[in-house]
Amino acid sequence: MKRLLVIVFFVACSKQPAYSLIGDAQRGQSKYAQYGCPSCHTRGAVGPPLDHMASRLYIAGEFPNVPQHMVRWISHPQAMKPHDAMPDLNVSERDARDIAAYLYTLK
Amino acid sequence: MIVHALLLAAATAIRVHAIQHHGWWELRYSDGTIAANELHIPAGQATPVRITTDAPRFSWATTFRSSTTLTALHGAKLIVVADEHFDQWLANQKRNASPAAGADVFLTARCTLCHTVRGVAVAEQPLGPDLTHFATRAKIGGTIPNRIGYLGGWIVDSETIKPGNGMPINNVKSKDLQALLAFVSSLR
Question: Which residue of B has its CA nearest to A43?
């Protein structure tokens, strides 16, 4: 038990980037492609380009860009903003966290 | 007895006429079934297929026995699928669509200018593939995975995904896009 506490202490204090606590950014990058996100988010004609998503202050022009909103937006956009162009993509909680982690690498 | 069975099988073997249009394939089965883009054949059976294209004018009689993909001119890939459950697939392709929510948007958005969904509407001109059982296809436009994210981008802005495919940009209201996605996804 003491050993476990030590490990947790070290992990919590490590200099890991914040987004790595949200999910796996590398896995998120492949999930981003798998769900078809580039279909709308590349040219910027349908959905905005996400190249600098990590630096943006709002998600969907409405929600402060914090991990909690980002994960929720990726998994349930229609619940947050009914009739927005972004459809519900049946993204699992885990995949949403990983995609969010990936997006937060895009400074 | 075996010879008789083989002769019977040969006599009733399905044949397909694959017609290449601009960016897509029309598939006419010898029993009258119509499909598009993904040519299912009975697994392990040689199926005669006649392939015709318009530009250039070309006709080719061949036989397919296993899954393969033909990359033809105009980048319209013909996907051949050796199907273990071919009979089921064929029977399903024959059925009309069960009208689902969003059919009205399919009409008002003028998708029926080019696309047929049997039981809902017939295309004004057959410029695009029959979508009656679109949701049973593995790919959209023979090119990208048939999943919601890809489908949304395709419906609105297919030109970015497959330049020159022929389908216009469909700048529908976002509310209508959701209805179209639900409708098209229900076409099993």
Answer: B160
